[in-house]
Amino acid sequence: MTARHEEIADELRRAIDREQYTVGSRLPSESELAAHYGVSRGTVRQAVAALTAEGLIGSRQGARRVVLASRRSQSFEELRSFAQWARAMGREATGRVVEQTYRPATHEDAVRLQLPLRTPVLHVLRLRGLDGDPVLLERTVYADWISPAVESIEPDCPSVTQRLYDDTGLVFAYGEHIIDAVACGARDAELLHVRRTSPLLRVRRVTTTREGRPVEWSDDRYRPDAVTFSVHNSIGNNALSRKTAE
């Protein structure tokens, strides 16, 4: 027999998938959910903990929980971090900072992050993996106002998105993505365990807050044998999704 907290967790998952609770919105309070489902707050806490572990919602001490993702395969209309996407697929995401340094903002940094030229910004090269296999290199530039919070995160943190939410309440709300292919350079080949000049899938993205304030811009390079992107078209929908390669 299914435990009541598992039933409630599944009902909340379906509500998130139906966009009854949209990405970036807050769930009702524990007491409101307990009254709605006719259970104790402890039962609600168990249900919410399951969704937090799956990366669907963020949990922050003393604050209402925020919806971070749904269970659907990731659409670029629905912003989801690599770690959240991996957990939804039943995979273990790993992360390791290879290099981290402050540099004066270049013209490109200044335009993308809407900052004055030469503002100190944090550059991070991060290697991401699925179940221990390296699949992605992220070259991310963080705006000056969020850089100190990013700098304080441990180098092997699996989800920077979740940690920034936990520490600061920041929600990555909007993203713009440009996808193309590039040849693998010597350093990338060494880190991703592929041959030099191998093709890599590149996703360049800018991510902002709900108010449109740029948080980061990144050049992400995926091993094509590990991750693919697919497009599903219909008359009312054109969603680009990320999934594991088969």
Order of helices and strands: HHHEEEHEHEEHHEHEEEE
Name the CATH class of the largest domain. Alpha Beta
Query: Quick check: average pLDDT?
Result: 85
What does the overall shape look like? globular
Largest sheet geometry: 6 strands, antiparallel
The level of helicity is 25-40%
Strand order of the largest sheet: 4-5-6-9-8-7
The CATH architecture name of the largest domain reads 3-Layer(aba) Sandwich
Name the beta content range: 25-35%
What is the first-to-last residue Cα distance? 35 Å
Contiguous low-pLDDT stretches (5 residues minimum) are 72-78
Protein name: GntR family transcriptional regulator
Pfam family, one: GntR
GO molecular function: DNA binding; DNA-binding transcription factor activity
Organism: Streptomyces murinus
How would you portray this structure in words?
Helices cover 28% and strands 34% of the residues. 32% of the residues are buried. Mean pLDDT is 85; it is low at 72-78. The two termini are 35 Å apart. It has a six-stranded antiparallel sheet. Strands 3-11-10 form a three-stranded antiparallel sheet, with no helix packed on it. Helix 1 packs across helix 3 (41-53) and helix 2 packs across helix 3. It contains eight helices and eleven strands.
